């Protein structure tokens, strides 16, 4: 929690801060989604980059929670190698959003930055479910 507060304070004090992240498609970054309204996702989450253009990136947040009978569209990604936790991750398709690249923080394990990337199968699963979610005909 302290890191999130420190990160937000840094953004307020240095609003033109540039990120060291490249925002590459399929890569996972830690993102502080801030405070949002209602049921919108908030606080810190790992996110996967789907697209990047200019100073913004389109991301889908990840979670480890999978409530039974949930109507929220999510994709089971399994265990993502290189992430500090060895738990199943889910992509929250309905929470797709575009953010400033300055929000992207490269994940760290034991103080060292690590590149975390989804495999082709995981990305395909996200894309297919995203198409279904956005292009529903009913």
UniProtKB/TrEMBL annotation:
<protein>
    <submittedName>
        <fullName>Toxin MazF</fullName>
    </submittedName>
</protein>
<dbReference type="GO" id="GO:0003677">
    <property type="term" value="F:DNA binding"/>
</dbReference>
<dbReference type="Pfam" id="PF02452">
    <property type="entry name" value="PemK_toxin"/>
</dbReference>
<dbReference type="InterPro" id="IPR011067">
    <property type="entry name" value="Plasmid_toxin/cell-grow_inhib"/>
</dbReference>
<dbReference type="InterPro" id="IPR003477">
    <property type="entry name" value="PemK-like"/>
</dbReference>
